[in-house]
Amino acid sequence: MPPTDATRYPQLYRAIKKKRVYDIVTQKVLSGAFALNLNRETGMSLLKQVGCSFNDCRGHFNTCFGEFVIDLARIRALGLEVRDDEPED
Question: Which DSSP string do the residues of 25-89 spell out, in sequence order?
């Protein structure tokens, strides 16, 4: 799996699947949005495409309360890797 190209995709998107991980008053996404289920997950799914539709963001989720933007450079500054599992998606 190759690293995500930061020049093509400087920003990534993640679906807000649970209402409780978004604070409406401060308009901030809470840390619970980044929690992994360690029994089944080894990484986090992000979307690379700018301007994806609500249905694209929602994917296979039963509910979706929106999406938020993550700067790829900030992810890498934390020492985390971002890799394409589907390079053409």
Answer: TTTEE-GGGG---TTT-SS---B--TT--HHHHHTT-S----EEEEEHHHHHHTT---B-SSTT-
